[in-house]
Design goal:
heteropentamer; A alpha/beta (about 230); B alpha/beta (about 250); C alpha/beta (about 375); D mainly alpha (about 300); E mainly alpha (about 325); A: about 230 residues; alpha/beta; six-stranded mixed β-sheet; four-stranded antiparallel β-sheet; 10 strands; about 35% helix; C: about 375 residues; four-stranded parallel β-sheet; binds adenosine-5'-triphosphate; binds magnesium ion
């Protein structure tokens, strides 16, 4: 579904990524791990073409999309829950959901389903995006990405600021999605949840992929976790 | 001794009562956690305690003085500082400058026009200490805009600490930090306990239960339960409304 | 060394067209004189006053101090005149104004180095006032923008008009929509309207005047319907009255030729700015021929007294070095070639001396 | 008196609608897209000049209008492609500088092409003439046409912004372009089209007012500030606000100009009133803006920032 | 020393060399141009304080230029011809106007602030337009330049130029200290995040108002000098287009560096002189140059310079 090879990127003159290798197969859930400031979000930004890739290759579903415009990359079937929510403040909750909604023939997500997943949002549907509480915004960001009916969902700290119950709700939703064959790339601070959920872990350190393997393998190699995650 | 007393606080947006007759006491020296579902009104409460938002009615008393109508700056000077859930920093300034500005705020007049502030060692030293406390010493010269999300969250806390408050209002300080950084920050808060009174809003239950002396549960504008960590953990209503299975 | 003449005119911004007429008139005159003034080679330095007094003052200094201009022809606007008068005359050059004739320089403040070739600012309005009285307009509504020049022009009209002033409507500088004022005029039903609305304001007003169906009420004006605005007003302005000491069809030797040459050269009917600038150059030519440029006092004397071929026929300066001349009632007509222009209808006052001349005691 | 007051109220409202018409394009580009476009005034002027040219060439008002619209649309597309797209992600002040530069370039260009003398645009046969109103006063049919055009533009704009997907995306893109793109929308193309639409609306206003107003090189500058005033009073980002702001400015300006001195005379002696009226009249619009903004720092319908 | 002060000092030295150079090539007019450059550099500096460091984009700043100019006219009419007394009066008038208009304007932000300052600027403009005693919109000529200690020293263009240059150097030096002092950092903080500033115990309004008043006072001093240079005072000095030109100068030079403000003023005045002498359509060229600078050098001329320097070092 997604393959990233030797990705290098950065901001202005500062290079942050020095070689990220990452692949997500159809229907696979991959967790991107690394300490604060190691380049997880930067990887996501480069993947979506929001910052230019200086080297390396990005391919989605076999199509080379290196250097493509963000909307073309997204249209290849990627859905994004960005770090920091990035809700559209001047749109209502409902407009936030429908403005960028899209489906290629087989819509699995629609407004009613989102309202069902997040009843709290349904109550606030006429409110402006920036009138929501932090957690509500996070729900909206997840809902907005789902409404694009992606084949690969990318979640960058999607559970930040969510109450435990909602967090569980989201994890079980992700599990259902995975079961439906959706590919998922997830960044999250809860290693325990990730280990339960993901098929594979990719650990990055200072902008490089330093380890890849199954959760079980990571559990078997505590020195890896110790070295790169300090968990 | 009660440091902060909130009485019958009310705030509504149209028909939505976000703070709905809320009363709360925080004793000097305690770490008082407030938990509750998303949209319960926790941040709105902090906003009213810190003076960012004016309540519709009710009163806030800090250290025996009614501060319901005083502005944010005076509250900070009285010893009441806060951190923001949605990171609020000076993006173009370096981490050190961000913190030094907070130090400057409580150390003499800022109507000084001549002496270079960058050379004021007293400001910088104190600021560096705060940065080191949250683990950002090596990021001192980096502009806030060029920091990762987690680093910004750490800086957010450092700025609040630099105010040297008597009461610290923390709005999800751990959100967005990685497991390792979260551990460090929890240790830091643990160390501050006793010296600084804290109101902590957090969805990270492990941290809450590890740190809190008392926990209040806020659901849609009202406090529905209040007590020690164990008491709250066992409360079936709280479990159903908020905690779910994760807390077990 | 050629004779250097600075043309300091507003050539940018909305009123640029006035400056262009003056510039073109002056250049046409120079062309006619084969590029010579009084037989000496001449060079014209065309400079944009930009309509800003401080910039104009700076440019005046540049012309006089740096470029060595002996004479400056300009400006169009009175406020610029006040700003450049000092730099030009103190720098040792003569100032010849092809349009602006503010009262400050006509009375006590008259200056031996300043010659106003056009008229004193108040005169056109006073002439209109006399005409309105004579024509038996018993009631008049006045309209002008709310600023000093507007006040001054209405004041000039009121000085000589002896009927009733029904109302004085003060509009905004640069006003676009006049429907409120037009409604008032319709309600008052005066015998006539007197307007001072220069430039785009006049175009807006005149068009809307006709569209509001007020054409039945005669309209008199100054600086409102002239050859710079008529191309935009066209039929809406036909029959409107104003006054002046020159018009394109004035029957004076050389005038018809000037107008034809101007049209051939620049593709439009000249306005008074062009004619006065032309006259200024002709005056300069004759004076230099008589006195040369070496002796400043001699040249000044020549400028004051020489008889030059003016497009206005007889021309002379008063004691304050403002013209003493005839004023006509003019009316907007369509020329045979389809263009619109003002046409001199009748003589209103002959040998008109401005009201301030007596106060000038420069000598 | 009361009658005249009502009539002047109407005149003020009509002037307000005219202002809205001119501000409409700017509402889109500045209000909604959050792009400070100082070149709006010259685009408006360009519309009027193109109208003057095409109407003369084709001999038809309607054909001229059509061509003027098409040309300003193309100009909008070209400008967006050459300049504006490079500025969306830049600070507001860069936009100010760049569009100020464009303003200089375009207005000088207009002067080079058409000269500095004002031009005439004849009124179309169909819309000339006037209908009788109270007493001897007649109301020009063309004014009614302008009012209709203004109202239609307002309605259309509101519908586009508030009711269509494009409107939502536009609002979303104004606050966070990268995010809209990352969610799969070609925001650049949308911005291109909307910017061109904004230019065309400016041109439309210019073309439409050309039979009523002087078509001269200063027409854009004088109206530019007024359009910003209108939008800011109404609150940036709100079509409703721009409309309300335009009406308010139109009415305050007109009624204040006419009745201000009369009312002042009621409270002070006539000479002082005349003097005060003279000083205050030109400030009215600005006093209004300062008053509105000190009462509501984000305009009448603006969102708190 | 970082690049910005070096550039600023280089500019000051460059300006100081103009009169001897003008004498050498026999064109005294160069000094007149340099004077104008220096006057506008002071005005641009004053604007940079609030715009560059406080993000307060004043679109009515020319009002202070005008206030300063009218202070000269009013003082002169009442027999006060001393330059420093006039500057004092100008600064006082500007401070009053800034305090009142600032107290209202500073309730707003961003574009609203731009427009409300424009409104106050226009009010000042129309006030002077209706001031018949001083010529209304025509303005009024000054009888002579201001005096220094009772002497007409400033009638000499070179002396006057060095007087202006001294004011510029003083303004630059003072502001440079100020922006790097505590006050400057607080001002910058309010630019970056007002909410955060309040949350660490500041009242941004006070600092903004103080900066706003100070900036108005400095600009009024520039107005005093401008009136003296042209020996003419008119409301045209406070037209909104003038405020716009000040902003353009600043943006062209680069915001928030002080040196950029000076460079912008110098280049703008210089280009105007140069281009206007070269072509009737100089505005077209000027527009193209501005456009080129914005599109290819985001931080104005100082940004360009910085990149050139960085390029040289790498
Ligand atoms: N806009 C920016 N400009 C410059 N540098 C940046 C910018 N954003 C991030 N960085 C730097 O890039 C590095 C990687 O940041 P990134 O946001 O990718 O980290 P992350 O792994 O997502 O961390 P976190 O877990 O804290 O979100 C960090 O060192 C950060 O300081
Ligand atoms: N300006 C506003 N207008 C309307 N509703 C608002 C406004 N601000 C907040 N709210 C609503 O008030 C409720 C409480 O918000 P608040 O931010 O206090 O929640 P919270 O408890 O902090 O939630 P979270 O855990 O998600 O951060 C939310 O439902 C929010 O949508
Ligand atoms: Mg991240
Ligand atoms: Mg919250």
């Amino acid at each position: 579904m997604l393959s990233i090879e030797g990705l290098e990127a950065g901001y202005g003159t500062a290079q942050v990524l020095f070689g990220i290798d990452l692949a997500v197969a159809e229907g696979e859930a991959v967790a991107l791990l690394g300490r604060n400031g190691m380049g997880k979000t930067t990887t996501v930004r480069a993947l979506f073409g929001l910052i230019p890739a200086r080297a390396g290759r990005i391919a989605v579903a076999g199509r080379d999309l290196t250097g493509a415009a963000p909307h073309r990359i997204a249209r290849a079937g990627l859905g994004l829950v960005p770090e920091g929510r990035q809700i559209f403040p001047t749109l209502t909750v409902e407009e936030n959901l429908v403005a960028t909604a899209r489906s290629d023939g087989r819509p699995r997500w629609s407004l009613p389903r989102i309202w069902e997943l997040f009843p709290r949002l349904a109550k606030r549907r006429r409110n402006m995006g920036d009138q929501l509480s932090g957690g509500e915004q996070q729900m909206l960001a997840v809902g907005r990405a789902l409404m694009t009916n992606p084949r690969l969902l990318v979640l960058d700290e999607a559970t930040e600021g969510l109450a435990p119950l909602i967090r569980e709700e989201i994890w079980s939703c992700l599990i259902r999605l995975k079961a439906e064959g959706e590919a998922i790339l997830v960044i999250d601070k809860s290693l325990a949840q990730l280990s339960r959920f993901a098929d594979r872990h990719v650990v990055i350190e200072k902008g490089r992929t330093v380890w890849t393997g199954s959760p079980a393998a990571l559990a078997r190699a505590p020195e890896i976790a110790q070295r790169y995650l300090h968990a | 001794m009660t440091l902060l007393a909130v009485r019958d606080l009310r705030k509504s947006y149209g028909a939505l009562a976000v703070t709905d007759g809320l009363s709360l006491d925080v004793a000097e020296g305690e770490l008082h956690a407030i938990i509750g579902p998303n949209g319960a009104g926790k941040t709105t409460l902090i906003a009213q305690l810190s003076g960012q938002l004016a309540p519709d009615s009710g009163s806030v008393t800090f250290d025996g003085t009614d501060i319901t109508r005083t502005d944010m700056a005076s509250r900070v000077r009285a010893g009441l500082a806060r951190s923001f859930q949605i990171t609020t920093l000076m993006p173009a300034m370096t981490a050190l400058e961000n913190v030094a500005l907070a130090v400057q705020g409580r150390s003499g007049s800022s109507f000084r026009f001549w002496r270079p502030v960058a050379a004021e060692a007293a400001l910088n030293d104190q600021a560096m200490t705060c940065l080191a406390q949250v683990g950002l010493a090596d990021r001192a010269d980096r502009p806030a805009a060029a920091m990762s999300h987690g680093e910004k969250r750490q800086l957010e806390l450092a700025v609040a600490l630099a105010c040297r408050p008597r009461l610290l209002l923390l709005d999800e300080p751990l959100a967005g930090t990685g497991p390792q950084e979260a551990e460090r920050l929890v240790a830091l808060l643990e160390a501050l306990k006793g010296q600084v009174t804290m109101v902590l809003i957090e969805h990270d239950m492990a941290a809450v239960f590890a740190l809190a002396d008392r926990i209040s549960v806020l659901v849609y504008g009202q406090i529905v339960a209040s007590g020690g960590p164990e008491e709250i953990r066992q409360d079936p209503a709280v479990r159903a409304a908020y905690l779910g299975e994760e807390a077990c | 060394d050629p004779v250097k003449v600075g043309l300091l005119l507003t050539l940018s911004g909305p009123p640029a067209v006035l400056g262009e007429h003056a510039r073109d008139g002056a250049l046409l005159a120079l062309k006619k004189l084969d590029g010579k003034l009084g037989g000496e080679a001449a060079e014209f330095l065309v400079t944009d006053a930009e309509g800003k007094p401080d910039i104009a003052a700076q440019k005046a200094r540049r012309l006089v101090e740096s470029d060595g201009a002996d004479v400056v022809i300009g400006p169009i606007f009175s406020n610029i005149m006040a700003a450049i008068a000092g730099p030009v005359t103190e720098g040792g050059a003569f100032l010849l104004s092809p349009n602006a004739g503010p009262s400050v320089f006509a009375g006590e403040g008259c200056n031996p180095d300043i010659f106003v070739v056009s008229y004193q600012n108040d005169q056109p309005d006073q002439v209109m006032g006399e005409y309105a009285s004579g024509a038996g307009y018993g009631s008049v509504v006045l309209i002008a923008p709310n600023y000093q020049a507007g006040m001054d022009h209405l004041g000039g009209f009121k000085r000589t008009y002896d009927g009733d002033i029904t109302a004085e409507l003060m509009t905004q500088l640069g006003q676009l929509d006049y429907s409120a004022e037009l409604a008032q005029i319709a309600a008052y039903q005066p015998d006539a309207v007197y307007a001072f609305l220069p430039g785009g304001m006049g175009v807006n007003f005149v068009k809307q005047y006709q569209q509001a169906g007020l054409s039945g009420i005669p309209m008199m004006s100054s600086f409102t319907t002239d050859e710079t605005t008529l191309p935009a007003m066209q039929d809406a302005a036909l029959g409107m009255l104003s006054s002046g000491s020159w018009s394109p069809d004035l029957d004076v030797p050389g005038n018809a030729e000037f107008v034809d040459d101007f049209i051939a050269e620049y593709g439009r009917v000249p306005a008074s700015y062009a004619a006065y600038a032309y006259d200024a150059v002709m005056l300069l030519d004759t004076a230099i021929a008589a006195a040369g440029t070496e002796d400043r006092d001699a040249l000044r004397e020549a400028l004051r007294t020489v008889d030059f071929p003016s497009l206005r026929g007889k021309f002379s300066f008063g004691a304050n070095q403002f013209p003493v001349q005839d004023f006509y009632l003019t009316e907007v007509v369509q020329r045979a070639d389809g263009a619109y222009a003002t046409s001199a209808k009748e003589l209103v006052t002959a040998d008109y001396v401005d009201a301030y001349a007596d106060a000038c005691t420069a000598e | 008196m009361a009658n005249l007051f009502l009539l002047q109220l109407l005149n003020g409202a009509q002037f307000g609608i005219l202002l809205f018409l001119v501000a409409a394009g700017l509402t889109l580009v500045f209000g909604i897209m959050d792009f400070i476009n100082l070149a709006h005034g010259v685009l408006y002027m360009l519309g009027a000049y193109l109208m003057a040219m095409f109407a003369l060439e084709t001999g038809s008002f309607w054909l001229g209008l059509l061509l003027a619209l098409a040309t300003t649309l193309v100009v909008g597309l070209v400008l967006e492609w050459l300049v504006f797209r490079r500025l969306y992600d830049r600070p507001h002040l860069d936009q100010v500088l760049a569009t100020f530069a464009l303003m200089l370039i375009l207005s000088e260009g207009v002067k080079i092409l058409w000269g500095s003398a004002p031009l005439n645009v004849a009124m179309p046969e169909l819309l000339s003439g006037s209908i009788p109103l109270a007493g001897p006063l007649r109301y020009p049919v063309y004014r009614i046409a302008i009012i209709v055009a203004g109202l239609a533009t307002a309605a259309g704009l509101w519908w586009l912004i508030a009711r269509t997907r494009a409107g939502m995306l536009l609002r979303a893109g104004a606050s966070n372009r990268p995010m809209v793109a990352a969610l799969g929308t070609d925001i650049s193309r949308l911005f291109l089209l909307v910017f061109a639409l904004g230019a065309m609306l400016a041109g439309f206003a210019g073309a439409l007012v050309s039979p009523v107003l002087s078509v001269d090189p200063g027409m854009g500058d004088s109206i530019l500030i007024l359009t910003f005033v209108v939008i800011v009073i109404g609150g940036v980002g709100s079509v409703k606000g721009a409309f309300a702001g335009a009406l308010l400015v139109g009415i305050v300006d007109t009624v204040g100009r006419i009745f201000g001195p009369i009312w002042l005379k009621l409270v002070m002696d006539p000479a002082a009133a005349t003097q005060a009226g003279r000083v205050l009249a030109p400030m009215l619009v600005y006093l209004l803006m300062a008053a509105v903004l000190s009462w509501r720092p984000n305009g009448l319908f603006g969102r708190p920032s | 020393m970082s690049a910005a002060p070096k550039a600023a000092i280089a500019l000051l030295i460059l300006l100081a060399l103009v009169p001897p150079a003008a004498a050498a090539i026999g064109d005294p007019f160069l000094t007149v141009i340099a004077t104008r450059m220096a006057v506008f550099a002071i005005a641009a500096l004053s604007l940079d304080l609030i715009l560059g460091y406080g993000a307060l984009v004043s679109f009515g700043h020319a009002a202070y230029l005008g206030l300063g100019a009218y202070a000269v006219a009013v003082c002169a009419r009442h027999g006060i011809t001393d330059l420093f007394l006039q500057m004092g009066a100008a600064a006082l008038a500007a401070a009053l106007f800034a305090a009142v208009s600032g107290a209202v304007s500073l309730r707003t932000r961003g574009i609203y602030f731009i427009m409300i300052t424009l409104a106050f600027g226009q009010m000042a403009y129309f006030f002077f337009v209706s001031l018949s005693a001083y010529g209304g919109d025509d303005g009024t000529a000054l009888a002579a330049r201001s005096t220094l200690f009772g002497r007409a020293w400033l009638e000499n263009d070179t002396a006057f130029f060095y007087m202006v240059l001294a004011c510029l150097a003083l303004a630059y030096g003072g502001l440079d200290r100020l922006v790097h002092a505590r006050f400057g950092r607080v001002l910058t903080g309010t630019r970056e995040s007002e909410l955060r500033m309040r949350a660490i115990g500041y009242r941004p309004f006070r600092y903004r108002l103080a900066a706003y008043v100070l900036s108005g006072m400095i600009c009024a001093v520039a107005g005093v000098l401008l009136a003296n240079q042209t020996e003419y005072v008119s409301p045209a000095y406070m037209a909104w287009t003038r405020s716009g030109e000040l902003i353009v100068m600043l943006l062209l030079g680069g915001v928030g560096t002080l040196a950029g403000a000076m460079a912008g003023a110098l280049v703008t005045v210089g280009l105007e002189e140069l281009l206007a002498g070269w072509s009737e359509h100089w505005r077209l060229c000027f527009g193209l140059i501005l456009l080129a600078v914005v599109l290819w050098s985001p931080a104005g001329l100082t940004g360009l310079l910085r990149r050139l320097l960085a390029g040289g070092r790498r």
